[in-house]
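Notes to self after the Tuesday call (sharing in case useful).
The group wants a holo model before anyone commits to mutagenesis around the pocket. I volunteered. Ligand is zinc ion. Logging inputs and output together so the record is complete.
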Amino acid sequence: MTTLFVFVIGIAIGSFLNVLIDRLPKGEAITGRSHCDYCRKKILWYDLIPVFSFLILHGKTRCCNKKLSFQYPLVEIITGISFTFIIVIPNEVRNLATEGGVKLFDYALLDPSGIALRMTMLGIVSCLIIIFFSDLRYHLISDYILLALFIFSLPAVALAKEGPLLSILFNSLASGLIVALPIFLLYYLSRERAMGLGDVYLSAIIGFILGWKSGYIALYIAFVTGAIYGISLLLLKNRKLKSRIAFGPFLVIGLVTMLFWADKIYGLIDMIYKY
Ligand SMILES: [Zn+2]
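Result:
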């Protein structure tokens, strides 16, 4: 029952994330009624019900019968699953990668620190979903969302890592700079062709949250998944060699992997080294 409730709340939040994904890159106000992307007509409330409206309308707009992006139900379902995962799923499957190996969910669900940590994780994951889809679709990462992500990561880092607050903050900031350095060089040397400034900031936040070691593994995962995606696009001949692929979504994949499955990745690395 709790699971279903959290899932439904997650889906509703996902619906709001869709609004941010579409409006922030265009610089539109985030309040105000939704209107059709094609004919600008206002969308009625019963066509804005997450997932259901998409299914009932067969993925088309009611006003002008144009194709609705699959992004809408996808973001809603992903948000629903992420929220359920963070709040309901047992502790063993999740941990925050830190050099000290401090578990993210060592705090019990109803412990005040446990509640605070889960709330900040919901904030972090929501920001990451926005970054993933708006960079994928519009090739833009909003500065507001990067700032929100950084603000959410402050309590997460303070709660999940051990030691005096000042040294945690110093180590995390240093890790952020270390992890952002190669991305900054790619950005600078390619004159913004390989990377955007948003990618530099995002990788700094990745280092801040994960520490430099896990941060570099997250970068590595981003490059590998990005390369696999790029090569499969070429093989499918969907794109010309020159067209740009946004890097932000792959940075998000790297961060999420290390945020939730760092012990599995370190286990894998150990296994590879043994052979
Ligand atoms: Zn329309």
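Two things stood out.
Residues 36, 38-39, 41, 61, 63-64 surround zinc ion (CB under 6 Å).
DSSP finds nine helices and no strands in the chain.
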